[in-house]
């Protein structure tokens, strides 16, 4: 079957909204990714998110060793405009990112302003795996007490994210994608700490 830009995008959107409202919930886009008939070099779940989030009215930045190639493909698919990280509505940090590039992109990402905190960037970060492990503990709105998860590579961006989100309502929202087509959403209101083992 062919990927349906209306039906499949709506279904993916509902899953993202559900994951945002319940931080720590791991959703799968496996059904949607199976319909894709192209490959940009991103994770298939990242490609579904790109089709869902990008259009002619928004801007994006790709952080990857293949930045130029993938940027061109996403632009052709969505007509969204590529800009630098400090102007981007969406920042796609792909699995092959350079750590310095990642830090620069997150530090320069838009956090909105007090009148319009929604004018901030959303980060889409690719990681090898997100799972229901116990390495990280999450708390905040949408979480009854606490929620646990394991996220490969979280050490590279966890502290920078916390710094960007320290002046609520300003901040950045994050969506993680992995090789198994899973997504995990981390709104700016979600606090994440490494579990301390005794």
TrEMBL record:
In which domain of life is the source organism classified? Answer: Bacteria
**Listed Pfam families:** PhnH (PF05845)
Native species: Neobacillus bataviensis LMG 21833
Cross-referenced InterPro entries? PhnH-like_sp, Phosphonate_metab_PhnH
SUPFAM superfamilies per the UniProt record, alphabetical: PhnH-like
Q: Name one GO biological process term.
A: organic phosphonate metabolic process
The protein in question is named Phosphonate metabolism protein
Instruction: Give the taxonomic lineage as stored in the record.
Output: Bacteria, Bacillati, Bacillota, Bacilli, Bacillales
């Amino acid at each position: 079957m062919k990927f349906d830009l209306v039906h499949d995008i709506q279904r993916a959107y509902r899953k993202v909204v559900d994951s945002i409202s319940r931080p720590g919930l791991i959703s799968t886009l496996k059904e949607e990714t199976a319909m894709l008939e192209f490959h940009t070099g991103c994770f298939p779940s990242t490609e579904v998110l790109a089709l869902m989030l990008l259009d002619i009215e928004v801007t994006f930045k790709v952080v990857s060793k293949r930045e130029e190639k993938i940027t061109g493909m996403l632009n052709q698919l969505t007509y969204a405009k590529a800009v630098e990280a400090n102007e981007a509505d969406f920042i796609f940090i792909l699995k092959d990112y350079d750590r310095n590039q990642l830090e620069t992109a997150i530090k320069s990402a838009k956090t909105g302003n007090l009148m319009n905190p929604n004018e901030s960037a959303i980060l889409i970060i690719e990681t090898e795996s997100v799972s229901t492990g116990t390495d990280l503990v999450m708390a905040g709105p949408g979480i009854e007490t606490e929620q646990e998860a394991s996220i490969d590579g979280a050490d590279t961006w966890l502290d920078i994210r916390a710094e960007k989100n320290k002046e609520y309502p300003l901040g950045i929202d994050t969506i993680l994608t992995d090789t198994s087509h899973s997504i995990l959403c981390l709104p700016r209101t979600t606090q994440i700490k490494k579990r301390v083992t005794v």
